[in-house]
């Protein structure tokens, strides 16, 4: 059995990306609960059958949308951690503050939180009960950074610190209590204490 030719693979990736972008656009405008699969297909300029060939259900599309947004978000976290090298406090503060501020100004996150508070929403669990995608992706970036910049800290210690700080950061994204700078300050201290 031969693999798909590169041109077909690239075309399929472009279609998939267009569908996820259309879903994001419609979710920001109307809230996920009002997004219909037919509207996503129309916005992306493809048939409904093409949409269902890529995502067999609305849940599959929701997951793809969440995964893409998380990957973009985690790339920013990686940049902020790396910018501070071996200073765990400064790195944690910068990454956490970025995460909080980026989530606050991100129209998709706002749409998810707003619609989620008003009723059932398939996207809200990616920040709450199904946050394993966020935890895994952000935790991997923290472990990668620590392995390079803090080789003296054991992997199990880094794992616990990463898990705790990511969970707390997500919690503050969902239910913010203080300005981002203050929250980042507190959580950076927690992260450093967990590493020692």
TrEMBL record:
Q: Which Gene3D superfamilies match?
A: Tetracycline Repressor, domain 2 (1.10.357.10)
InterPro entries linked to this entry: AlkX_C, Homeodomain-like_sf, HTH-type_TetR-like_transc_reg, HTH_TetR
Cite the HTH tetR-type domain residue spans from the record.
13-73
Mention one GO molecular function: transcription cis-regulatory region binding
Annotated DNA-binding ranges? 36-55
Q: Which UniProt keywords apply?
A: DNA-binding, Transcription, Transcription regulation
The name this protein goes by in its record: Transcriptional regulator, TetR family
What species is this protein from? Actinoplanes regularis
């Amino acid at each position: 059995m031969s693999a798909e030719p590169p041109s077909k693979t690239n075309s399929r990736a472009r279609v998939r990306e267009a569908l996820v972008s259309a879903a994001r656009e419609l979710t920001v405008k109307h809230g996920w609960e009002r997004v219909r699969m037919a509207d996503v297909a129309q916005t992306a300029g493809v048939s409904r059958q093409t949409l269902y060939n890529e995502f067999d259900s609305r849940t599959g599309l929701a997951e793809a949308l969440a995964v893409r947004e998380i990957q973009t978000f985690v790339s920013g976290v990686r940049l902020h951690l790396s910018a501070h090298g071996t200073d765990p406090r400064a790195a944690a503060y910068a990454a956490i503050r970025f995460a909080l501020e980026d989530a606050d100004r991100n129209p998709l996150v706002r749409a998810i939180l707003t619609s989620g508070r008003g009723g059932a929403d398939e996207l809200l669990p990616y920040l709450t009960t199904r946050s394993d995608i966020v935890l895994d992706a952000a935790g991997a970036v923290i472990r990668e950074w620590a392995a390079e910049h803090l080789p003296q800290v054991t992997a199990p210690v880094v794992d616990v610190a990463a898990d705790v700080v990511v969970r707390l950061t997500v919690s503050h994204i969902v239910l913010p209590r203080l300005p981002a700078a203050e929250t980042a300050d507190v959580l950076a201290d927690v992260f450093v204490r967990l590493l020692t």
